Amino acid sequence: MKEKTYEKERAFLAPYAKKSYESMGRLREEPQCSMRTDFQRDRDRIIYSKSFLRLKNKTQVFFAPDGDHYMSRLTHTLDVSQIARSIARCLSLNEDLAEAIALGHDLGHTPFGHVGERVLNSLCPTGFRHSEQSLRVVDVLEKDGRGLNLTFEVRDGILNHTKNGNPATLEGVAVSLADRIAYINHDIEDAIRAGVIREEELPAEAVKAFGGSTRERIDTAISDIVEESEGKAQVKMSAARMKALGDLRAFMFERVYEHANKLIQESAERMLGELYRYFVSRPEELPRQYEGTARTDIPRAVCDYISSMTDKYAIGVFKKLFVPREGSV
After folding, report:
1. Which of 85, 112, 245, 329 is 20 to 30 A from residue 270's alpha carbon, by CA?
2. Do the beta carbons of residue 305 and residue 290 sit within 8 Å?
3. How far apart are CA 193 and CA 213, in angstroms?
4. 124, 64 contact by CB (below 8 A)
5. Each residue of 83-95: pLDDT tens digit?
């Protein structure tokens, strides 16, 4: 069955797409699967990882919103996967590779969204970036320290999915663009739902370039990338639409992200800061799976633990350590 997939890749994928049989391999050699390609196996390993399951209880932008339809880190990840797969399919790239990168790109994200990332970055002596932590999750932290042993191409795409990254594959570039398209547009939807902004306040030129609804904006973005890239060894958006996307992003930072962050930033910073300082001074209280790292790098072990937490779990640990309970002395 795997050979049939290879035949389809040879027949239908673009010359510049990354074929499964051309992968640069894994960190550690292991027996091949008779049915699935390496990229398909990577996708499955990510889906069944504990880090992926925890994404459902991690903040995207709005923490504990009143409503069932706000984005979480998991729904954002699925959104990125869908957009990246659409781009890959239209450009005859490797859809399995794009999907695996997209599903793994935020595995190392902190509780409380980018607020948590900034807190750990300011406290850890060596800094903290969620893209680097996502790679650390799949390389080191998953499966009790054995990691998921993913292929080079998926690992590279996870590490380089941010705006300043430089992915080694076009599928990785597709995920990077899909990430921006997804979070900007669905964060707009959430912000309107929350009453933080009104639709008519969006930058007029950006609305003109992409459309007035989430569906229109995403469809236009994908179509623009396909028109700009079809038949070429590139995945890019036109200059005009890229500028419009940047204008939407700047608007969201000014009107939404800072506003949303202010609602949780002070309490989240205090909470995560106290947790960080507590465990740095008491590394022996870290869960057992972090003991090995703590022997050589306590701050990194503490970051590993805190970044793995969901929002609710972080609050629970904080209450257990710092909030007096009834009957306590």
Report:
1. 329
2. yes
3. 13
4. no
5. 999 999 999 999 9
Contact 20, 5 (CB under 8 A): yes
- The conformational region for residue 276 under phi > 0 = left, psi -120 to 50 = alpha, else beta, is alpha
**Residue 73 neighbours by CB under 8 Å, 6+ apart:** 55, 56, 58, 59, 60, 106, 109, 113
61 vs 48, 66, 325, CA distance in Å?
25, 13, 31
* Six token digits for residue 243: 């500028």
3-state secondary structure of 15: coil
Dist. CA 109–CA 107, nearest whole Å: 6
| Number of residues in the chain | 329
- One-letter identity of residue 236: K
Quote the mean pLDDT of the chain: 93
Give the residue with greater pLDDT, 22 vs 71.
Answer: 22
Phi-psi region of 266 (alpha: psi -120 to 50; beta: other; left: phi over 0): alpha
| Helical (H) or strand (E) element with 41 | helix 38-47
Question: Are 79 and 182 within 8 A, CB to CB?
Answer: yes
What is the 8-class DSSP label of residue 107? T
Cα distance between residue 89 and residue 70, in whole Å? 28
In 10 A of CB 75, how many CB atoms? 16
261 pLDDT above the threshold of 60: no
Q: Which amino acid is at 18?
A: K
Structure tokens at 289: 């799976």
Spatial separation of the C-alpha atoms in residues 142 and 14, rounded to whole Å? 34
SS3 state of residue 72: strand
Tens-place pLDDT, residues 26-70:
999 999 999 999 999 999 999 999 999 999 988 877 665 555 567
- The answer, as to whether pTM is greater than 0.90, is yes
Non-local CB neighbours of 11 within 8 Å, separated by 6+ positions: none
pLDDT given at position 65: 53
Q: Select from 257, 100, 115, 119 the least CA-distant residue to 184.
A: 257
